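Please, structure for the following, as tokens.
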Amino acid sequence: MLDPKLFDDLSRRVAEGMPKGLQALQDDFERNLRAALEAAVRRMDLVSRDEFEIQQAVLQRTREKLEALQKRVAELEQTTTR
């Protein structure tokens, strides 16, 4: 999952940008914004960078194996057609 510190930082920055008259509501707003951001990201069904890189490596190995098998099949087809 995504780093919870990201949500904390983003909600804090938005809350700090609020006008001074609303500073009393800052803590409540920050908590609510953080919860809303987490819920929105969860609905997006995102993956972490680590998960993405792992799957990318698996895909690369699979492509390499596929290319090797395709080459082997082509060689065998040439052998049987001679």
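Helices lie at 4-16, 26-44, 49-81. The mean pLDDT is 84.
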